[in-house]
């Protein structure tokens, strides 16, 4: 039986570990945290991500996780809703707002039912074990304890600041820096108890979005310029009267809800957005996937999607190998996984950047903003304008290439 060590229990690691364990491989999943609840996790799951979960046979599992189906994409410009696009549903797939921690825990619980799966929570990988040119295991620590785990292949799913990427000597080509995000939570207004819109708000030099989340509260993401937290910037950001900042771009009834709940605002949490891609995703004995190989920007919720789709491709390539005689998974297989995934990652990152450049342009004070406001006011209520927007979003909603689980 091949032994695979997966490092990091985010979407990439949990999905990969579950799929490989189901194929009959011995799988050890190591995670540095002891709980799945984290201060902030991405919550948007686009149709391609939901499709990936369904392909993994997790439709019923998904139903048990707290989630809300998105109803619409709303665009507020200058304090008024100018366009509403109804969230379509193709083949039962629509965008969801999910409790990511709950989803991961449920998936790990599924894997735990398999005798060949082991979950080591609270273990942080600090070193790679090597023999000649190949990685043959990892060293992990928990408190004062240390453990060496050897394996036929290590799959590093340890996120955007990947320690394993660094230990393997693989470097990332950073994409042009875009923006960072401040996250807030606020009680949701009663009008959004039943309805789940994703609301994008735009004013000159001001872009933020909010949606009623799976926990019944509003999740608000405010865009700040890249690295705004440095050189005392964070203290200044924390001092701002955020409720007033939001209210300036909201219609009166929402603004008064925000003001009434001023004391219940949580945040900001500063999220440093990293975007890029490794030129090389593997060395003998080790493969990077998910954000470790290609950190994704948060716009249009692509990170979970791409991580789940990476896991499917890994499972497809590994399925042929479970009974192979050679101990190590060959570097050709690891390179083939990169070759299959990299084109979609590149295309999606380009689309995210283009999307951001558009938003950045139309929120520039003066002609760009007022021109856009006029266009949105004139055409936003017409179906053809809504369909144009939806058509542009297709790659970000459904993925760029087909990714089908073959095992
Ligand atoms: C502000 C922001 C908002 C976002 N919102 C969304 C969204 O709504 N929808 C979406 O799809 N994507 C979103 N993303 C992107 C998304 O969070 C990531 O792309 C996605 O989580 C990547 O999954 P992953 O499994 O590769 O890595 P991660 O989810 O980062 O998981 C990595 C795991 O590895 C563990 N780990 C790290 N180092 C070690 C170690 N040395 N040893 C053991 N364990 C380790 C970590 O604790 C973690 O559990 C957002 C990103 C940002 C920055």
From TrEMBL:
Q: Which UniProt keywords apply?
A: Monooxygenase, Oxidoreductase
Top-rank taxon of the source lineage equals: Bacteria
User: Where would I find the FAD-binding domain in this sequence?
Assistant: 4-348
> Which Pfam families would you find in this protein's record?
FAD_binding_3
Q: Which SUPFAM superfamilies match?
A: FAD/NAD(P)-binding domain
Looking at the keywords, is Oxidoreductase present? yes
The GO terms describing molecular function are:
FAD binding; monooxygenase activity
Q: What is this protein called?
A: Monooxygenase
Classification from the root reads: Bacteria, Bacillati, Cyanobacteriota, Cyanophyceae, Leptolyngbyales
